[in-house]
C-alpha cells in the first residue's frame, strides 16, 4: 500500500473521528447519566415523565416500573425509562 492510498482514506477517517467525538460519545454519556438517575429513584422523589406529567414516586415496584402519584389518590404505573427529570430528591433515611 502506498502513500496515495492512505491519503485517500484519511478524510474518511477524520470524518468518522469527528462524528465520534461530536455525536456518539456525548450521546453515550447522556444515556449513562439517565440510567444512573433512573436507578437512583426512591419513594418520595418528585419526577417529570416524558409525557410532561409531574408526580411523586409512591412505590418502586421492580427494576423497570414505578408507581407515581399525580394527585391525591391518583396513582399511575410508569416505566422507569420514561422518567425525563427528577425535580427533587428525598434524603435517604438514616438507619
UniProtKB/TrEMBL annotation:
It comes from the Bacteria. It is found in: Cell membrane. It holds the Pfam family YajC. GO terms for cellular component: plasma membrane. InterPro entries: Preprotein_translocase_YajC. Coiled coil: none annotated. The keyword Transmembrane helix applies. GO terms for biological process: protein transport. It is a single-pass membrane protein. The keyword Transmembrane helix applies. Keywords: Cell membrane, Membrane, Protein transport, Translocation, Transmembrane, Transmembrane helix, Transport. The chain crosses the membrane at residues 6-24. Belongs to the YajC family. Part of the SecDF-YidC-YajC translocase complex. The SecDF-YidC-YajC translocase forms a supercomplex with SecYEG, called the holo-translocon (HTL). The SecYEG-SecDF-YajC-YidC holo-translocon (HTL) protein secretase/insertase is a supercomplex required for protein secretion, insertion of proteins into membranes, and assembly of membrane protein complexes. While the SecYEG complex is essential for assembly of a number of proteins and complexes, the SecDF-YajC-YidC subcomplex facilitates these functions. This is Sec translocon accessory complex subunit YajC.
Amino acid at each position: 500500500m502506498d502513500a496515495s492510498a492512505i491519503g485517500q482514506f484519511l478524510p474518511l477517517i477524520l470524518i468518522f473521528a469527528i462524528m465520534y467525538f461530536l455525536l456518539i460519545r456525548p450521546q453515550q454519556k447522556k444515556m449513562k447519566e439517565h440510567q444512573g438517575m433512573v436507578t437512583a429513584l426512591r419513594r418520595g422523589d418528585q419526577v417529570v415523565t416524558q409525557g410532561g406529567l409531574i408526580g411523586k414516586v409512591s412505590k418502586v415496584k421492580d427494576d423497570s416500573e414505578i408507581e407515581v402519584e399525580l394527585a391525591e389518590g391518583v396513582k399511575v404505573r410508569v416505566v422507569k425509562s420514561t422518567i425525563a427529570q427528577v425535580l427533587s430528591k428525598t434524603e435517604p433515611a438514616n438507619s
